[in-house]
């Protein structure tokens, strides 16, 4: 007799695989080896699956079994009484499974084992190979198993073959409504009580930075579907790895789930006689009390977890080095301008010979030893590490041996450094807890520790952009480079704000990377070799900016920076604020990994704008304006210390050293915000407007005008004319209204504005204000201006001036005239053209201009309403005159 069976506590993957196996063994009997999960039991009650001839275990003569077909299992101790049958001489065993091999796996005559998300996927592949077509009912049963074991194709174990299997089943009639009905089940009261106890008993086990959550519970009654509770608990609390042990009567049932390669729960639970994958496993323990199970579990977890290669994650690479022959003054200058406290010392050939730190150099210089070289003060006895060195070992080197920095060697070659600050920041992040917030990433400490945004990238960004990011990471990995998303794109991704200005930083040659990507994918490259940057331009116009990782230092306050190639950490350190100093790695298996060296996530949670160091505003005073812009745009606040540094930079006059064009860039960015009023009000509060012009003020009158300008811009945008309006110029017209003509011109020249914009701000603005007074009915002349007069008066004014006048108008009559001009009158043309005048017999000449002006005015004023009337008017007025 042939028997098809599966493991105890069977689930839908067991059911689907057993039904599929029946197509290869049509005479076999379908039998469950033990209990079934609750969902599966309810399915048997509500469906017609009994039609497939499932038999009860007690009705089977085990001695009559000659061939045993196992699906979704290959361990004798997981198939109940069939375990003895499998070991009996003369019984042929066939296995179909997707689990990795365990130490106690049965050796079968036929084995079909594939590393996919479910056993159903294995059978779908066999069906396709042999041309077997499942019935719609079979396809539905198989889809239930596939969806359950892959978490509806969302588990990290899901592979391309699983998606192909789902497509195959859907093509052959799988009923997704039935799948949804039976996989989405409400928890029972017993399960809810058990889940609550599991939540209360969660305790973390930290193994060199890798955290595994252990939890337990006890109940005297049997409660099924522990796998469902494990999945819910892991998703509710966003755990990377979870193992739970539940005592039910005289047995302890264990379930493990993991989403990280460092924790293989299959390996952990195999020590308890269980099995499964690295990401999902289970075990049942008999004759061992729960406390003993938990004690042993902790020991096994500590010995089984493979910790992160922490040195490779923390190190700055490439390392900033000091030449052994450099003077102490030269070494100090390097350390100060790069913002580091120490550096490895190398010979000219690049060989590591020592380490030196800033305190040592400072003490030597205080003693007047300016002629000494680095070689004479460097530490020659020092420890090194490799990229795979663990956190515990780094702690011993840096804290235990009081070594300020540890050089990291890869195959004997200097690959990077880990400093005391790097280790301290990692340790603080690792134990710090995050309060509740608006975003899932900011809500739980596990998300911060793992720094993984892969799921957020997939859920928040368009699929096409996600694919492009994966392609960028693949090209980087093939070239041996590290590629990172940086800056505002990452900040807004964490805040779940739309932002498609993608900035990419590459540790290495950014231009070479861009060119390699463009050769493979359909886009072109615009390179800027002077700045080591490039832009990828896709056929639809979408752009991605690419830069080589670089650092910068300032020779003096407010000067433009000097730029050098550097590591991603130093590249982020040069940025303005912590919230903009986040990076997401794209290459290889690190896709989605978030780098937060400077507490950017903390400041996003606290909704604070903070600088990275105390000299930030002194070195680059334009950051004062950027701090205000981000504070108001994001609804954040400037941190207390940061605001003190900002006010101090203003008080000491460092902003006065800025060139006008740099001020103008920051001002136009602020005035281009959706609502610049709060930012400009903040600028006035911080006494910044005087750097634009000493007489520039901002009061309630200007505030009211800004609000009207906002309404004017919104009104115009809703017209959908397709014209581009520069909001910053409209707001600047409003901001400068209180200045006289000469002061306005002085301000524009100071800001380095173009001659064309200078004319808009001065001559056109003055003309517009004069014309506006004529449009107001209470100003002379008291008669209402005709449309032709309004057209003549307003023609030639820039669009921004017109929108400013709309905002400045005080009466409905003036606003109506301006809106009519903008929407209708300025586009009106005469009914006739030059060839029409020739056809009517009017000789070409200077008179044509007079005719067109006359015809346009009469059309605008309604005196001429069509072409026929225009021709009649020309004949009576101009042809009659020409004949006379």
What is the topology?
Elements: E1 2-5, H1 12-22, E2 29-31, H2 38-46, E3 54-55, E4 67-71, H3 82-87, E5 92-97, E6 110-113, H4 119-130, H5 136-150, H6 160-171, H7 176-183, H8 189-200, E7 203-207, E8 210-219, H9 226-237, E9 241-248, E10 251-258, H10 265-270, E11 275-276, E12 280-286, H11 290-304, H12 310-314, E13 322-323, H13 328-338, E14 342-346, E15 352-357, H14 358-366, H15 391-400, E16 405-410, E17 413-419, H16 420-431, H17 445-450, H18 454-460, H19 463-478, E18 482-486, H20 488-494, E19 502-507, H21 510-520, E20 524-528, E21 533-537, E22 543-548, E23 550-553, E24 562-565, H22 568-573, E25 583-585, E26 593-595, H23 600-606, E27 608-609, H24 616-619, H25 622-634, E28 637-638, H26 640-651, H27 660-671, H28 677-685, H29 700-717, H30 727-735, H31 741-751, H32 755-775, H33 787-794, H34 799-808, H35 812-823, H36 834-840, H37 847-860, H38 867-883
Parallel strand pairs: 1-2, 1-4, 2-3, 4-5, 5-6, 8-9, 13-14, 19-22, 27-28
Antiparallel strand pairs: 7-8, 9-10, 10-12, 11-12, 14-15, 16-17, 18-19, 18-25, 20-21, 21-22, 23-24, 25-26
Helix pairs in contact: 1-4, 1-5, 4-6, 5-6, 5-7, 13-14, 25-27, 25-28, 27-30, 29-30, 29-34, 30-34, 31-32, 32-34, 34-35
Biggest sheet strand order reads: 20-21-22-19-18-25-26
- Report the CATH superfamily of the largest domain: inorganic pyrophosphatase (n-terminal core)
Rg over CA atoms, rounded to whole Å, is: 37 Å
Task: Tell the overall outline.
Answer: globular
Tell me the span between the first and last alpha carbons. Answer: 122 Å
Residues in helix, %: 40-55%
Indicate the low-confidence ranges by residue numbers.
Answer: 429-450
How is the biggest beta sheet arranged? 7 strands, mixed
The DSSP helix count reads: 38
Quickly name the level 1 CATH class of the largest domain: Alpha Beta
Instruction: Give the number of domains.
Output: 6
């Amino acid at each position: 007799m042939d028997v098809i069976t599966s493991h105890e506590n069977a689930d839908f993957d067991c059911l689907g695989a057993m039904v599929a196996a029946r197509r290869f063994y049509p005479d076999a009997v379908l039998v469950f080896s033990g209990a079934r999960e609750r969902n599966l039991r309810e399915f048997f009650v509500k469906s017609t699956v009994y039609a497939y001839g499932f038999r009860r275990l007690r009705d089977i003569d085990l001695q009559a079994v000659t061939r045993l077909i196992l699906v979704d299992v290959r361990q004798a101790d997981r198939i109940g009484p069939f375990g003895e049958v499998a070991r009996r001489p003369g019984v042929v065993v066939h296995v179909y499974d997707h689990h990795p091999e365990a130490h106690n796996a049965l050796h079968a005559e036929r084995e079909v084992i594939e590393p996919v998300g479910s056993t159903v996927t294995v059978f779908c592949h066999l069906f396709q190979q042999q041309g077997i077509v499942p019935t719609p009912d079979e396809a539905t049963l198989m889809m239930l198993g596939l969806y359950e074991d892959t978490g509806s194709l969302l588990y990290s174990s899901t592979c391309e073959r699983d998606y192909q299997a789902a497509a195959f089943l859907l093509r052959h009639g799988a009923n997704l409504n039935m799948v949804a009905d039976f996989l989405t089940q409400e928890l029972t009261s017993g399960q809810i009580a058990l889940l609550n106890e599991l939540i209360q008993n969660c305790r973390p086990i930290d193994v060199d930075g890798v955290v595994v959550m252990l939890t337990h519970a006890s109940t005297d009654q049997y409660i099924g579907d522990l796998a469902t509770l494990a999945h819910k608990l892991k998703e509710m609390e966003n755990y990377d790895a979870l193992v739970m042990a539940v005592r039910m009567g005289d047995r302890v049932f264990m379930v493990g789930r993991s989403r990280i390669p460092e924790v293989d729960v299959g390996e952990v639970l195999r020590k308890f006689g269980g099995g499964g994958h690295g990401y999902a496993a289970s075990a049942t323990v008999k004759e061992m009390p729960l406390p003993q199970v938990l004690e042993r579990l902790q020991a096994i977890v500590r010995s089984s977890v493979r910790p992160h290669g922490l040195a490779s994650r923390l190190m700055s690479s490439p390392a900033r080095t000091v030449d052994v022959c450099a003077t102490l003054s030269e070494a100090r200058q390097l350390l100060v301008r790069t913002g580091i406290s120490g550096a490895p010392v190398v010979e000219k050939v690049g060989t590591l010979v020592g380490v030196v730190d800033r305190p040592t150099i400072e003490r030597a210089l205080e003693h007047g030893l300016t002629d000494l070289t680095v070689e004479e003060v460097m530490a020659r006895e020092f420890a090194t590490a490799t990229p795979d060195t663990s956190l515990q070992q780094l702690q011993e080197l840096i804290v235990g041996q009081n070594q300020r920095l540890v050089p990291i060697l890869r195959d004997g070659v200097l690959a990077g450094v880990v400093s005391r600050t790097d280790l301290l920041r990692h340790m603080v992040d690792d134990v710090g807890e995050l309060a509740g917030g608006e975003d899932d990433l900011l809500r739980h400490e596990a998300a911060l520790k793992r720094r993984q945004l892969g799921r957020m990238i997939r859920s928040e960004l368009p699929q096409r952009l996600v694919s492009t990011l994966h392609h960028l990471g693949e090209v980087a990995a093939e070239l041996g480079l590290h590629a990172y998303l940086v800056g505002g794109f990452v900040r807004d991704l964490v805040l779940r704000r739309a932002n498609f200005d993608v900035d990419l930083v590459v540790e290495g040659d950014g231009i070479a990377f861009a060119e390699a990507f463009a050769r493979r994918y359909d886009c072109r490259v615009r390179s800027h070799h002077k700045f080591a940057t490039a832009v990828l331009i896709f056929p639809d116009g979408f752009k991605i900016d690419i830069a080589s990782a670089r650092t910068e230092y300032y020779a003096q306050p407010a000067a433009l920076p000097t730029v050098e190639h550097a590591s991603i950490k130093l590249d982020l350190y040069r940025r303005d604020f912590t919230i903009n100093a986040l990076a997401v790695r794209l290459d290889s298996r690190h896709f989605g990994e978030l780098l937060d060296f400077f507490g950017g996530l903390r400041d996003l949670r606290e909704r604070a704008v903070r600088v990275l160091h105390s000299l930030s505003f002194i070195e680059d005073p334009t950051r004062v304006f950027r701090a205000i812009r981000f504070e108001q745009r994001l609804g954040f606040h400037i941190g207390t210390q940061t605001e003190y540094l900002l006010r101090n930079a203003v008080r000491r006059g460092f902003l006065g050293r800025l060139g006008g064009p740099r001020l103008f860039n920051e001002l136009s960015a602020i005035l281009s915000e959706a609502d610049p009023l709060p930012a400009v009000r903040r600028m006035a509060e911080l006494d910044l407007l005087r750097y634009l012009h000493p007489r520039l003020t901002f009061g309630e009158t200007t505030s009211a005008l800004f609000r009207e300008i906002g309404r004017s811009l919104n009104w115009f945008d809703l017209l959908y004319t397709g014209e581009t309006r520069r909001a910053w110029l409209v707001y600047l017209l409003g901001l400068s209204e209180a200045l006289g003509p000469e002061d306005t011109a002085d301000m524009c020249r100071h800001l380095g504005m173009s001659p064309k914009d200078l004319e808009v701000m001065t001559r056109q603005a003055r003309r517009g204000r004069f014309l506006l007074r004529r449009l107001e009915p209470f100003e002379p002349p008291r008669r209402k201006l005709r449309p032709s007069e309004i057209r003549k008066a307003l023609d030639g004014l820039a669009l921004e001036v017109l929108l400013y006048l709309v905002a400045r108008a005080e009466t409905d009559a003036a606003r109506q005239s301006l809106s009519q001009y903008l929407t209708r009158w300025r586009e009106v043309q005469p009914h006739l053209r030059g060839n029409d005048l020739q056809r009517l017999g009017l000789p070409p000449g200077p008179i044509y201009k007079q005719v067109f002006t006359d015809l346009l005015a009469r059309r605008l004023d309604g005196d001429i309403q069509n072409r026929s009337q225009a021709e009649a008017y020309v004949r009576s007025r101009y042809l009659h005159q020409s004949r006379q």
